[in-house]
Every structure is written in C-alpha cells, then in structure tokens.
Amino acid sequence: MTVFDRDSIQSFHFTGCDFDAASGVARLRYAFDDGAELVETVTIPGAPFVLDGARAQAAEQALRLLHLIAGVSYYKAAVPERIRIDGYAIDAATAALMEEIYVNGLGEFAYRNGLNLHGRIRFPADGQGIAKAPTLGLRRHALVAIGGGKDSLVSIEALRALDVEQTVTWIGGSQLIKACAERTGLPTLNIGRQLASELFELNRQGAYNGHIPVTAINSAIMVFAAVLLGVDQVVFSNERSASYGSMIEGTGEVNHQWSKGWAFERDFGGHVQRTVAADLHYYSLLRPLSELAVARQFARTDRYDAHFSSCNRNFHLLGERPASRWCGVCPKCHFVFLALAPFMPKPRLVSIFGRNLLDDPAQTAGYDALLEFQDHKPFECVGEGRESRAAMATVAERPEWREDAIVERFRREIRPQLDAGELDIAPLLVIDDEHRVPQALWGRLRAYLAT
Ligand SMILES: CC(=O)N[C@H]1[C@@H](OP(=O)(O)OP(=O)(O)OC[C@H]2O[C@@H](n3ccc(=O)[nH]c3=O)[C@H](O)[C@@H]2O)O[C@H](CO)[C@@H](O)[C@@H]1O[C@H](C)C(=O)N[C@@H](C)C(=O)N[C@@H](CCC(=O)O)C(=O)O
Ligand SMILES: Nc1ncnc2c1ncn2[C@@H]1O[C@H](COP(=O)(O)OP(=O)(O)OP(=O)(O)O)[C@@H](O)[C@H]1O
C-alpha cells in the first residue's frame, strides 16, 4: 500500500466534473499528481431534469463553479504549489475568486498548521472571459438553506411572514436538520453529498487537515440546485457578525467563518449573476443583523425550542452524535445561551439547554474567551466580543441572572475593567444597510425585522 506523503506532492488536479440529468447525480473529480481520482458526489432530488439550451449552459457553469469550490476539501490534504484544471478553462475573474476563497477560507487551517498560503495558491487562468450570463426567466421561489440552528429558522419565519414561496433545503444526512425542516411545515428538499471516502484514509496517513469554508461549498451546491429546479433565489442566514474573525497576536485576523462573511457573499453572489444566470439571486437574509439581533428575532416564537440546536457537535460526518442536542461545553453552546438570555424568560432558556450554563463555574474559561477577556474569540461561529460583553452586561442587571456564577464573576472582576459606554446592547441591534437582499423584498423585510 502506498502511503500518502503530503510533502512530496507536486500538484493538485481538477480532473473533471459531470452531471447525469437522468439520476440527478453530479460527480466532482480530483487527483494529486498522477494518483487515483478522488470522487465526490452531489445528488439533487427531482430527476430526471430536462434542461433547455440556456438552462443547460447555466447548469454547466454552476457545476464548474461547484467543482472548483468543493476542491478545497481535497486540495488542503497536501496544499501543493501547482494547480491544474482539465476539461475546461477558467478566466482571470474566476481564478481570482477561487484564490480569494481558498486563501481566506483556509485561513484557520493555515494558521493551525503553520502554513502561509498567501501567494501560494494560483489557479491557472487561461480561458477567454466567460460570456455574460443570460436572464433565464427563473420562477420566483426561494431555496432556503437550513442548518438546524436558530439562524436559518429566523429567515424561514421571515420569508413565511412576507409570503415568499420557499423550499427548506439541506445538504447531507443530519436527522436533526431533517426534524427542524419538517417542523417548519413547508416543502423540503434534502440534497445528498458524499465526500470521496479516500479523503478519510489520506487523513489517517498524515494529510494536512483542518477547517474548510463549508458555507462556500454549501452555497455552490444550492446555486447548482436552483438552476436545475428553475428558481430565482438561494437564501442563506449569515449574520453581519460573521464577517469579523478572531484577532490573533502576531498574526492578525483569522476568521473561522470567512465564507459566512460579507466578502464571500458579495463576491460569490456577483460572480453567480455574471456567469451563471443574471436573474439568480444569492443572498443572506440576515446580513443586516448582528448575532444578538438574530437571537432577539429567534426568541419571538417557541415553535422550534424542542427541535433546534446550534451545537456543531451534532454535525460530524463520522463518529457518534452527542447524547443531548446541546453539549453545553463548546463555544457555540456558550454563545447561544448568552445571546438568547437577554431576550427570553430564564425558565424557557434553561429548559431548551437542559441546564443553566451561566451558573456553572466550569464554563468560566469558555465565557472569558467569548468576552475576549485574557483570551481571543474562539475559532467557532460565535458573535463578536463586544456582543458577548453587551449581552453579559445586560443580564448582569437582571435580578434573575445577576447571582449566577459566571454573571456574578463578570460583575465583580470583568465589568470594572470595561468601558461602560461600550456595554449598551441597543446599538448592536441596529439594522445595517450592507446586504444583497433583493430590492423588491428589502422594504418589507426591514419593516418586519424592526418590529
Ligand atoms: C461537525 C464539525 O464541526 N466538523 C469540523 C471538524 O471535523 P471532524 O473531523 O471533527 O468531523 P467531520 O465534520 O465529520 O469531518 C470529517 C473530515 O472531513 C473533512 N471535511 C468535512 C466536510 C467537508 O466539506 N470537507 C472536508 O474536508 C474534515 O476536515 C474532517 O477531516 O473539524 C474540522 C477541522 O477543523 C472542520 O473542518 C469540520 O467542520 C465541518 C467542515 C463542518 O461542516 N463544520 C460546520 C459545522 C461549521 O463549522 N460551520 C460553520 C461555518 C464555517 C464556514 O467557514 O463556513 C458554522 O457553524 O457557522
Ligand atoms: N447541512 C446544511 N445544508 C444546507 N445549509 C446549511 C447546512 N448547514 C448549515 N447551513 C447553512 O449555512 C449557514 C451557516 O450555518 P449556521 O450553522 O451558522 O446557521 P444555523 O444552523 O441556521 O444557525 P446557528 O448559527 O444557530 O447554528 C446558514 O445559512 C445555514 O442554513
């Protein structure tokens, strides 16, 4: 058996991609040097698909975009200096977008592995500029990504309130997400995705490993599905706080959730309209909101209390799922508990989590990191430090919370060291104007979010 020697690998190849319209299966193929192909599959329900000329062309563009972006899972195993694309050519704009996604989306990966990817990742641009994408006449309908957590449920309820037709869509086999999707009572779509199983073997043999920009991959899958299904909107639920990373001394900003941020949304969404379909809108409905503003929206209904979870330990592809929907010890559990506390009655919140995290001294270090007190914000999808500090300062004023262990310590040790003027929660709930929400929806959405 040959062993994977990551340092001897010279090049990464995008060896090809194809789509079988009869079965709905897309195959994304990759290889290192002259090695065996690694094949990832994505299965879109609803086959057979019948695509006319313009839509077939758009589907091919969307498939290539997905092929390029999903390659990041495999490229990271060796991060070789050369990249080759077989079967199709890309233009300079596409190459620049891929370099942006790979360098930034692998930011945490590079930091943890002691690698510098700046200037190292070069996609070969040898194609003519891609012809401007036509308007396909897509029907008004939203494919809304659902992740099992609070954010997408806020978007789904907003679209329901605004009478936007939607299909609640998720990728992969998570039972938790399925239960949340079914709880919405709306039409659902479950897209299949199988990573090349050889990747796990490469990991065992010492491949580089670490975080990848999974939201970029999910976005490209959803855009491909939207073209096949003939719908005009792909809706994500990425809040504005996601654009801010962790400040690492000596390194600068490293953003775990880069592909949930505004730069990705703006550049990917623009590229889709230019190269796939002019009338296909990719946007995040929650971009104008902070994490705290999303938490406030979520608290408006208890419909999902017994179903949702933001704890990422539920979403491993391999291995066991946690016994409880909320592990109670990870940064996401810490943050979501804190973010919801100002907006929910205490008994409701404690009953969702099955315990009171703010009264557990064992969680002190976790909360210090969120507050950026003698630590940096964790590499997780959590709000900004100033949001955590404002939420903590708010509950510290509430009689039902102020004596709980973590809150009491905050009042005693941390708050006196903070600038009181920066602990007000109200400015963090303001609705921002930087977003890609279609104009036709924005006015009504703004009014809904402001109530
Ligand atoms: C569930 C989770 O948090 N997984 C992260 C974890 O991976 P682990 O090895 O513990 O388990 P698996 O997720 O089962 O992954 C097995 C291996 O497969 C690789 N892989 C997985 C998916 C993929 O699309 N490409 C892949 O190459 C993975 O690297 C493993 O080797 O630790 C990994 C290393 O830090 C993380 O990369 C895993 O994160 C998943 C890709 C994942 O889906 N995470 C989401 C829950 C997540 O972090 N979402 C963020 C969005 C961040 C973003 O940049 O878009 C969020 O919650 O907002
Ligand atoms: N398996 C998935 N399939 C489709 N979309 C997903 C999947 N997992 C996450 N997403 C989407 O990716 C985006 C980021 O995920 P994230 O985990 O932040 O959101 P969430 O699960 O809705 O809420 P929370 O932040 O509370 O976990 C959201 O738009 C979410 O819907």
Automatic annotation (TrEMBL):
GO CC terms: cytoplasm
InterPro entries: MurL (IPR043689), MurL_C (IPR058741), MurL_epimerase (IPR053538), MurL_N (IPR058740)
Domain MurL N-terminal: 4-285
Function: Cell wall formation. Catalyzes epimerization of the terminal L-glutamate in UDP-N-acetyl-alpha-D-muramoyl-L-alanyl-L-glutamate.
Pfam family, one: MurL_epimerase_C
The protein's name: UDP-N-acetyl-alpha-D-muramoyl-L-alanyl-L-glutamate epimerase
Biological process terms in GO annotation: cell division; cell wall organization; peptidoglycan biosynthetic process; regulation of cell shape
Protein species of origin: Luteimonas cucumeris
All residue ranges annotated as the MurL C-terminal domain in the record: 308-418
Family of this protein: Belongs to the MurL family.
Top-level division of the source organism's lineage: Bacteria
Root EC class: isomerase
Transmembrane domains' residue ranges: none
HAMAP family xref list: MurL (MF_02209)
Catalytic function, reaction form: UDP-N-acetyl-alpha-D-muramoyl-L-alanyl-L-glutamate + ATP + H2O = UDP-N-acetyl-alpha-D-muramoyl-L-alanyl-D-glutamate + AMP + diphosphate + H(+)
Pathway(s) annotated for this protein in UniProt: Cell wall biogenesis; peptidoglycan biosynthesis
Keywords for the protein's UniProt record, in alphabetical order: Cell cycle, Cell division, Cell shape, Cell wall biogenesis/degradation, Isomerase, Peptidoglycan synthesis
EC number assigned by the record: 5.1.1.23
A GO MF label: racemase and epimerase activity, acting on amino acids and derivatives
Signal peptide positions (record): none
Taxonomic path: Bacteria, Pseudomonadati, Pseudomonadota, Gammaproteobacteria, Lysobacterales
